[in-house]
Write a structure and sequence with these properties.
Elements: H1 15-34, H2 41-60, H3 64-87, H4 93-121, H5 125-152, H6 157-160, H7 169-182, H8 185-216
């Protein structure tokens, strides 16, 4: 399959990935393929991971703009590993697992860094740390609902629910990027907490009732 025949996006991509990130990551991927740069999907996962990890200390050093830019760059680079895997026919479950776990480390560190920085400049640090806690737990609950559903149902979530993914990783990191650039640090934490918990609750309720209805109707086997 030629490079031009490969679709850079995948099912489940969020709007930021579709309309922004993929347009950049696919150019990076095509450059890697064109010049035969010796980068494997797992190596790209590590590069994306290190870029995201590097964002956290910049918040601690009170350099949030750089932190936000690195967070968004990490999000863009996170698409390259999957594109390479599809282009080189190197898609593996172990690679997907590796990438997913590294992403969760990055998510945690970026939120912790942003929360720490905001607490230093906001007059009510207790409120900031509560918001940071909600963002961290909301982020992991978003992932857990997906993982728990996949453990019991073989269907793809986008085909099984009408609830859009309003808190996908591309959206969350883009919110961090915008908030860091615009100086809206507390507002960023509020938005992240709101969208992650709203998404988790809406999808949990919707998926449960749809799942239950299919079971009661004696529909096709789900697992």
């Amino acid at each position: 399959m030629g490079v031009g025949e490969i679709k850079p996006w995948k099912a489940g991509d969020g709007p930021v990935s579709v309309y922004l990130n993929r347009k950049i990551s696919w150019r990076i991927t095509r450059t890697i393929l064109k010049y035969r740069i010796p980068l494997t999907p797992n190596k790209m996962s590590v590069i994306s991971f290190l870029t995201g990890v590097l964002a956290a200390p910049f918040y601690v050093l009170h350099m949030p703009i750089i932190g936000g830019i690195l967070a968004q760059l990490s999000s863009i680079l996170d698409g390259v590993d999957g594109e390479l895997a599809r282009a080189l026919n190197m898609c593996t479950r172990s690679g997907a697992f590796f990438d997913t776990v590294l992403d969760r480390f990055v998510d945690f560190l970026i939120v912790v860094g942003l929360t720490y920085f905001t607490a230093q400049i906001y007059p009510n640090p207790t409120l900031v740390y509560v918001l940071g806690f909600l963002v961290v737990t909301g982020t992991y609950l978003c992932s857990y609902v997906h993982i728990a559903f996949r453990a019991y149902c073989s269907k793809e979530i986008p085909r099984f629910t009408k609830i859009p993914h309003i808190a996908s990783r591309d959206i969350r990191l883009f919110v961090v990027f915008l908030g860091s650039i615009l100086g809206l640090y507390l507002e960023t934490l509020i938005v992240l907490a709101a969208i992650t918990y709203t998404h988790t609750l809406l999808r949990f309720v919707d998926l449960f009732y749809r799942f239950r209805r299919v079971e009661l109707q004696g529909g096709e086997e789900l697992t």
